[in-house]
Every structure is written in C-alpha cells, then in structure tokens.
Amino acid sequence: MSTAMNFGAKSFQPRPPDKGSFPLDHFGECKRFQEKFMKCLRDNHFENTLCRNESKEYLQCRMERRLMAQEPLEKLGFGDLIGGKSEARDKS
C-alpha cells in the first residue's frame, strides 16, 4: 500500500528562500528605479555593464525598503561605484 499515511515520517520543515529570492514590490516602492534601469538596458542594447549605476540605485532602494536583505554594495559587485561613477559609463 502507499506510504501517504506514514505518521512516523518527518514533517515538512519550511526553509528561507535561496539567496537572490526576494519579495515582489507589490506597492511599487522602487518602480521608478526599476523603470530607469530597464530604460537604460533598452537604450544600451541590453549591455548591462553600461547600466551599473542604475542597477545599484535599484538594489539600494529595495534594501532600504526591506524588499531584499541588506548587503554591502561591495559584496554585490558595486565596490568600484561607491563614491564615484562607473568607468564603463562616462557619457552623463
């Protein structure tokens, strides 16, 4: 017979989401930053290295509003952008 009624088995234990999983922005708190980032990607033929400042601003917004875990920007790959501009994007 099937083991569906096996009461000796461990019960399901929920676990936190994997790194990189975070809540959706249901209230649009960071929509402006997301739209700015997406526009930059479209304008630059989806060359994401040219939109690193916009990406950093978007992630900062999400962290400030607790839509993702707080992480140092250096750990997210933006160490070179802190206090300055990206070398890849000097057309501002």
UniProtKB/TrEMBL annotation:
A Gene Ontology BP annotation from the UniProt entry: mitochondrial respiratory chain complex IV assembly
GO cellular component: mitochondrial intermembrane space
A Pfam family it matches: ArfGap
A molecular-function term among this protein's GO annotations: zinc ion binding
Family: Belongs to the COX19 family.
Keywords, comma-separated and alphabetical: Cytoplasm, Disulfide bond, Metal-binding, Zinc, Zinc-finger
Location(s) in or outside the cell: Cytoplasm
Protein encoded by which gene: LOC103198936
Protein name: Cytochrome c oxidase assembly protein COX19
